[in-house]
Design a protein that fits this description.
Strand content: under 5%
Helix content: over 70%
Number of helices: 9
Shape: globular
Structural class: mainly alpha
Order of helices and strands: HHHHHHHHH
Mean pLDDT: 83
Low-confidence stretches: none
Largest sheet: none
Oligomer: single chain
Length: 193
């Protein structure tokens, strides 16, 4: 799951702002959001075509036999959860990337963000092993819904609980992060006018 939810290491705007070519992106007849979304989805489609068959094979050989009552609904729910996780990761990265417009160096912030996302998303270790209080705190942040939730939907016997909660929270975070992005990018673009 984590390979499909990864975003650019330096964010979406870093190179363009650093080189001063961001004005070329701003003046295009397509919004910055759509431009980066289409570019990112194209990259993810390439990854899916390259790695997808291998993941399906691994899932069918190793994970599927360990699920007591296999249901096609679980696979469909996992796919939907993964698509929402991808959009959640995208909108988070897009909102975070707007910091580039207001700082000279984003390296430290990006490394801290990468560490936080890796630890809090469940891609390094399962969040189930954390103390209950920390699990509750992490459920308030969007990171859990990027890797942990789709993984649980695909592999857990109580996948429906993870799916129903995840769909609502992933969708809410996508909207919230898009609003944050829209607000910050509006402020950033005013600096270029």
């Amino acid at each position: 799951v984590s390979i499909f939810t990864q975003t650019p290491a330096w964010g979406f705007f870093f190179d363009a702002v650093k080189k001063g070519t961001v004005i070329l992106d701003i003046t295009k007849p397509i919004s910055l959001f759509k431009m980066h979304l289409y570019r990112w989805l194209g990259q993810k489609l390439g990854q899916l075509l390259l790695f997808g068959p291998m993941y399906v094979l691994i899932y069918c050989l190793f994970i599927l036999p360990n699920i007591p009552a296999f249901e096609w609904e679980q696979i469909i729910a996992g796919f939907i959860s993964m698509m929402l996780a991808m959009m959640c990761a995208f909108t988070f990265e897009l909102a975070f990337s707007t910091i580039t417009f207001f700082t000279n160096s984003i390296q430290g912030l990006n490394e801290a963000k990468a560490l936080l996302v890796t630890l809090a998303s469940g891609s390094l270790f399962p969040l189930d092993i954390l103390p209950r209080g920390l699990q509750i705190f992490l459920s308030l942040l969007p990171f859990k819904y990027i890797v942990y939730t789709p993984s649980k939907v695909l592999t857990s016997s109580d996948w429906l609980d993870y799916f129903t909660q995840g769909v609502y929270l992933q969708s809410a975070y996508i909207v919230i992060l898009y609003v944050v992005y829209s607000f910050i990018i509006r402020l950033a673009l005013q600096r270029y006018e």
